[in-house]
Amino acid sequence: MQFSTFVRIAAFTLAAATSIAANAQAWPSKPIRWIVPYPPGGITDNSTRMVLQEVSKQTGWTIVVENKPGANSLLGADLAAKATPDGYTFLTVIAGHAANATLYQGRMPFDPVKSFAPVSLVGIAPLIMTVNNNFPPKDVKELVAYAKRNPGKVSFGSSGVGAAAHLTTELFKQETGTFMVHIPYRGTAPAMQDTIGGAIQILVDTPSSLMPQVKAGKLRAMGMFSAKRLPAYPEVPTIAEAGGPKLESSTWVMFLAPAGVPRDIVNRMSTEVAKAVHSADIKGKFEALGIEPVGNTPEQAAKYLDDEIAKWAKVIKAAGVKAE
After folding, report:
1. How many CA atoms within 13 Å lie on the side-chain side of 200?
2. How many CB atoms lie within 10 A of CB 25?
3. DSSP string spanning 21-37?
4. What percent of the chain has a predicted confidence (pLDDT) above 90?
5. CA nearest 205: which of 248, 158, 242?
6. Which residues contact 267 (CB under 8 A, 6 or more apart)?
7. Is this prediction's pTM over 0.85?
8. Which of 15, 88, 183, 247 has its CA 20 to 30 A from that of 227?
């Protein structure tokens, strides 16, 4: 290679590297849009806003959260999937995103994996099983025995078909060999009211949703779907401690970007999110909500999502769950 050619190539490479660095330094130069595909006020929305407020405090960035609920989160996810991959649109997803990959396979306007670039798994929230106060079983061991003696006569509610709470109870049924009837609702609130009122016997959901009712004496806590007791609720045993199978299940919060967003931007956002999640303020707030802070790398988040899709695909197919 001639020296002059080598110099030109070296100069071009240096210019390209300088351009990339300049672009990275310039981002963000305008507000970042963050889509939450659920209504305001729930654990998804609240945890997203908590973390992003901390990110904004750390960086000075302007991040605007937009709630875009609808179609079991598919509406908001579709908006993010089709956004320009320039680092100015991000998305929050929960365990339902992993379930949707199987429930709506071939019927989604985007690919739940290929359309996105994982940024970080923000936190994991183990679910809790609660029951109506008049339900005879006093622990999980008795519940399993009761359900086996009364097949089809025990009902459980959920916030909807394919929700983490629904699939967790289906997994519990599979692990214990019980037959209980699923009653889907449009959200946790009506399911909770019917559990309190006795129309259904069992309800699984997040501790932040159900523990206030337990503490008020309106529901009884049977166990947490976790490996160990949660610091916020040390009085509640794990499912295994209460005589059930060693079963862990949760909902979780993950941040995604549209596929094609420059890697340096994804990495920068991931770093800032992890820093926020592990701040003393966020860790304290998450613990109060029963959320385990994670804040991992894009690669770790991608592996977690793949594993969750595979896990829930098995449960969905074994239970014959169909999307509404």
Report:
1. 20
2. 9
3. HHHHHH--SSPEEEEES
4. 87
5. 158
6. 298
7. yes
8. 183
